[in-house]
Every structure is written in structure tokens, then in C-alpha cells.
Amino acid sequence: MPLIDYSFLSKILPKVKIKKSYTKAKKDYLFRIRIAMALFFFGKGFCFATWASRIPDLKNTLQLNEAELGTILFFLPIGQLVAMPFSGKIVSKFGSNAVTIYGTLLYAFFLIFLGLAHTSWQLAIGLFLFGVSGNICNIASNTQGVVTQQLFEKPVMGFFHGSWSLAGFCGALVSLGIIYFNISPFIHFILAFVFVIILVLLNANYLVKTKIKKTKVTEKKRFIQFPQKILVWLGVISFCCMASEGIMFDWSGVYFKDIVNAPGALVTLGYTSFMITMATGRFLSDVLVSKYGPRKVILSSGIVITTGLYLAVLFPYLIPCTIAFMLVGFGVSNVVPIVFNETGKIKSVATETALTIISSISFLGFLIGPPLIGYIAEATSLQYSFATVGILGIFITILTYRQELFK
Hints:
Elements: E1 3-4, H1 8-12, E2 16-18, H2 20-23, H3 27-53, H4 55-61, H5 66-73, H6 75-94, H7 96-116, H8 120-149, H9 157-180, H10 185-203, E3 210-212, E4 224-225, H11 229-258, H12 269-292, H13 294-314, H14 318-333, H15 335-343, H16 351-379, H17 382-402
Antiparallel strand pairs: 1-4, 2-3
Helix pairs in contact: 3-7, 3-8, 3-9, 3-10, 5-16, 6-7, 6-8, 7-8, 7-10, 9-12, 11-12, 11-14, 11-15, 11-16, 11-17, 12-13, 12-14, 13-14, 13-17, 16-17
């Protein structure tokens, strides 16, 4: 299957130079830099969690059925996809630190557009802009994260991504209180925007300022390329995981509202429980892999994802579904980080090229998964659609076992 080439990332990262003053900085200042970067990841995750937690309310306000909601949700990944060709160029031109700051503010600002939506097409446009800004923010912050990693001997990228997951839990928890007091999504999103502004103001000066070398491009890279077989299998595993993850982000609240019939603010309990275990799993990922090996962790992760989803389908009640969503969160937490780490061990393909190929396939999971749920739910029911997604966890386990990956 031909894939979009996102190799602009490889053009950014190797050419970044850190100012000498950072390499001579004291440990306490380096620690502050690390915390600042983690808080920018936290801000991104908080914005996304704020949006995801209010999907059921917006669905009811706009009187959307499952298929209509699925179609509208499709505009968020479309915005991300549209932004991909120029996100890297923006970061390369203006620097990852500046784009991280303004991209984060823009991402939070477009939350307000979602709260202002009174029609389905207004929500669709808002989600498109939210997706565009989100992709720019994501490329910039991850590039800044890689630059920050160069200042430390021990890995810190996992801490940054764990902060994103932790923000998902905190955002859901805040939403629980907001919904309890019957505050509208519009006011909720304004409060989230103000919170992000405060985060940016307190931490912007601690981002690493970089210089980017400009080099002549002697060879034009093809926009379409065909990946090696091993990269396809790794990409498919990531696809199954990210599709499951994206579905939980967008549909867990709806499932708790329409199927579980969770009362009041407890409609966000499923999403909150999912985010708690996903964040915990990511912080524990390095420990689990070192103790059991990546292969065993991936094999068990697929089983845990499927078990959680089918438990939610068979027992659509508050406590069993909360436990089920916790299982799904823990299952998806380790797959993508392990796949990305193992990709760097492939010697036949440049690491940056391999990662962009796998990222492309993985991204399709976020792109296709949530809208597909809506169409299946409209044709059958939301429970049947979750049962369909449960098969993806089985695929993860089978592919890992049959292809003898992660040795």
C-alpha cells in the first residue's frame, strides 16, 4: 500500500544545534527545562481530554446520531492530515521552541470554536482547525522534546509522553466536576484555554532555543514510497493499537452515556479510568520491557485490549465497564512506544525513514477508527461496534506471534 512520505522530520532533527550555554547549565536548571517541556506535553493532553470529555454533550446538543457524529469526528484527523506536509516546514523555518509556544496556544484557542458550534457543519469546521493546529503543535513539541533529550544522559522522552497521558486523566477529572456543576462546553473550553495560557507563560522561557542549519537538497524525495515488509507488519500492529486508542478517546463517553446509562457526571468515568491506566502503563513501560522483554509485553497487550473491550460489551454496567476500560487503557499504553523503540533497531532502513513509514500507517488507525465506529453503530448498535474493535487486539497478538517480531 503506498504511503505518504513524512521524511521532513528527518530533515529537521539531525540539523538542530543546541546553544553551548545549555550544555554547561546547572542540574537544577536542566531539571526546570525538563519540567517545562513536560508541562507543554501536559497542556496538549489537557486540551484533547477536555474536548473528548464533552463529546456526549455536544452530540446531544446538536442532536446527532452515531453515523452523523462519526462523520463529523472524521474532520479532526483530516485536519491533521492536511497539516502534515507543511507542519515540518513551519518548525524548520521558525524553530521548534517558538512553534511549540504558539502552536500550543492556537490548539487551546480552537477549543473555544468547538464550544461555539450550534450546527454540525460548525463543529466540523472547528474540528478541522483543531486538527490542523494539533498537528503543528505535535510536530513542534516532539521536535523540541528530541532536542531536550540531547541535554540528558538518561531517557526523558517517555516522561514527556507520560505527561500527555497524565493530562488526559487530569482533564477528564476536571471535566467530571465541570459537568457536575452543569457548566456548558463553551465556558469549559474557555477555562481550559486560560489554563493553557498560564502554563505557557510560566514555562515558555525554559524551552531550548535552537539553531537550524540550512542545507541544499540535492535529491527530491518521492511523495509516495513502498515500505519493506517488516515495516508493514510493525505499522499494522501500531494501526490496531492506535485505532483502539482513538476509539476510546472519542467514543468512551458516548458508550457510558448511551449503553451504560451512567448518571450525570459519571458519564466521563470510562474515559477517566482509561486515561489513568494508559498513563500508568506508559510510565511503567520501560520497567515491564526490561523484566519480561518487548515480545511478551506486546503479546499480552493485545490480549488485554480484547479482554477489556469484550468485557464492556458483555457486561454494560457501571463497575464492569469501568474495569473494562481500565484494561483497554493498560493494553494500549505499551504497544506504540515499544514498536517505535524496536523500529530503531532495524539496520536495513534509516531510523527516521522507518519511523515515518510506521507513523503513517499508525495514523490511519486514528483516521479510520472513530468514524468507522459511528457507521457500524448506526447499522447495528454501539455494543456491536465495540465488539468489532475487540478483534484488533487479537490481531496484535497474532501478528506479533506469527511474524516472530520483537525478539
